[in-house]
């Protein structure tokens, strides 16, 4: 675990150095998230198509990064299914993510369902008919 912590710290330092040398400042929390993502599997994985393929099996997540048509074609050919549980997949499908504020569901108590009561149409009313 100690070696990964060293890699994680090195990743944070190197990204921060690279960004600052190009005149950009990035909040350290963002860099920490990237470093955590790169080391969470017990090895250092790059934020590349090969690294992402090792991180997650989601077809839509892979298609959102690079080679979209290739990933979708391969998934369709092999009959792969996607659970649509991550942020990238949810954005592609236009669904709320199940993270942060999207992780809660609010239930509202409603009145019991009233049966549908048929009413006469307004134009069928005797008051509106023209007798001519």
What this model shows, in words?
The chain has 132 residues and is mostly helical. Among the domains are: 1-47; 56-98, DNA polymerase, domain 1 (Orthogonal Bundle). It has helices at 2-21, 28-39, 49-55, 59-63, 68-78, 87-93. Helix 1 crosses helix 2. The model has no long low-confidence stretch (mean pLDDT 77).
Provide a compact summary of the structure.
By secondary structure, the chain is mainly alpha-helical.
Give the SSE layout.
Layout: H1 2-21, H2 28-39, H3 49-55, H4 59-63, H5 68-78, H6 87-93
Helix pairs in contact: 1-2
Q: What spatial form do the alpha-carbon principal axes imply?
A: elongated
Structural class: mainly alpha
Mean pLDDT: 77
Beta-strand percentage?
under 5%
Q: Tell me the number of helical segments per DSSP (H or I, 4 or more residues long).
A: 6
Low-confidence runs (pLDDT<50, min 5 residues)? none
Topology pattern, helix = H, strand = E: HHHHHH
Largest pleated sheet: none
Helix content: 40-55%
Round the Cα radius of gyration to an integer and report it: 27 Å
The count of strands amounts to 0
Distance N to C terminus: 94 Å
């Amino acid at each position: 675990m100690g070696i990964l912590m060293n890699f994680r710290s090195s990743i944070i330092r190197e990204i921060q150095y690279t960004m600052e040398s190009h005149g950009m400042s990035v909040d350290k929390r963002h860099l920490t998230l990237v470093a955590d993502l790169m080391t969470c599997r017990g090895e250092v994985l790059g934020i590349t198509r090969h690294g992402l393929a090792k991180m997650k099996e989601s077809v839509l997540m892979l298609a959102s990064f690079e080679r979209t048509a290739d990933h979708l074609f391969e998934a369709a050919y092999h009959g792969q299914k996607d659970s649509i549980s991550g942020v990238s997949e949810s954005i592609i499908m236009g669904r709320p993510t199940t993270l942060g504020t999207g992780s809660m569901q609010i239930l509202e108590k409603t009145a019991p369902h009233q049966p549908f009561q048929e009413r006469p149409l307004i134009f069928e009313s005797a008051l509106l008919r023209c007798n001519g």
